[in-house]
UniProtKB/TrEMBL annotation:
InterPro entries: Iso_Racemase_Enz_sf, MaiA/AMDase. This is Asp/Glu racemase.
Length: 242
């Protein structure tokens, strides 16, 4: 066997990390879709254990698995930014606590999650009147609305598919999402519709809904990807240029 010479690449790409729920079938695909034409980004994923039933107790339980999930990233890497891809768990565990746990386990300059990212995106757009759509059970949806209103936002319309199974959340179809957006915006003037949940497959209907219902539509995955790009100094994907 002949030993062959080689050189090591000196990459200039931003290194981003994504913590994906065990039950999530959507966020990785959305990231690939938006970052596919972006040569400035290297995005690494890890998975975190979680029960399929979306409840407060199961969301809180993820806190005990976070360090284990982070340990599956390549050892010794310094990340430009890491995103924890769960909107509801960020609210239940606490945004600051999520950031603390991640920074204690991994070398990263920035940490975000869809709730933090949504607040940043809505502030960037100077939006105040929000229509909120989620697939969660009513109690978790109300907690999410409260997390947004404490940031000075006004929830002027809210609706939920009232689903507790993450597997079923991932299977909710595009027409159902579009009808829900229409229902929430039909009689109420809103600045932004925020579709909450990283597992809800809505990326492909965002532009349609914006044109059809004449309002800005954001989703958990869209704002998370936008915030990761902003924090890391990466080029913004086209759909994230709002």
């Amino acid at each position: 066997m002949k030993n062959l010479p080689y050189r090591l690449t000196e990459t200039q790409r931003r290194l981003l990390g994504l913590i994906v729920l065990q039950t999530d079938e959507t966020v990785e695909s959305d990231c690939r879709q938006l970052f596919s034409a972006n040569p400035t980004v290297n995005l690494l994923h890890t998975r975190i254990a979680v029960n399929d039933i979306v409840s407060v107790d199961n969301l809180v339980a993820m806190k005990t698995h976070l360090t284990e999930a982070l340990a599956l990233f390549p050892e010794g890497k310094a990340f430009d930014a890491i995103g924890y891809a769960c909107t509801s768990a960020a609210a239940v565990i606490g945004e600051a606590e999520v950031e603390r746990l991640i920074k204690n386990a991994v070398n990263t300059a920035f940490v975000t999650n869809p709730l933090t990212a949504a607040k940043a995106a809505l502030a960037h757009l100077q939006a105040k009147r929000i229509a909120y759509l989620s697939p969660y059970t009513e109690n978790i949806s109300l907690m999410m609305c409260q997390a947004l209103t404490t940031s000075g936002l006004e929830i002027v319309a809210a609706g939920t598919f009232n689903q507790h199974s993450d597997k079923k959340v991932a299977a909710i179809d595009a027409p159902s999402i579009c009808r829900a957006v229409e229902e929430l915006t039909r009689k109420t003037a809103v600045d932004v519709v925020f579709i909450s949940c990283t597992n809800l497959q809505c990326m492909d209907v965002i532009q349609f809904c914006q044109k059809q219902f004449k309002t800005t539509v954001l989703s958990s995955n869209l704002v998370l990807i936008w915030h990761l790009a902003k924090l890391s100094g990466s080029t913004l994907p086209k759909l994230c240029q709002f």
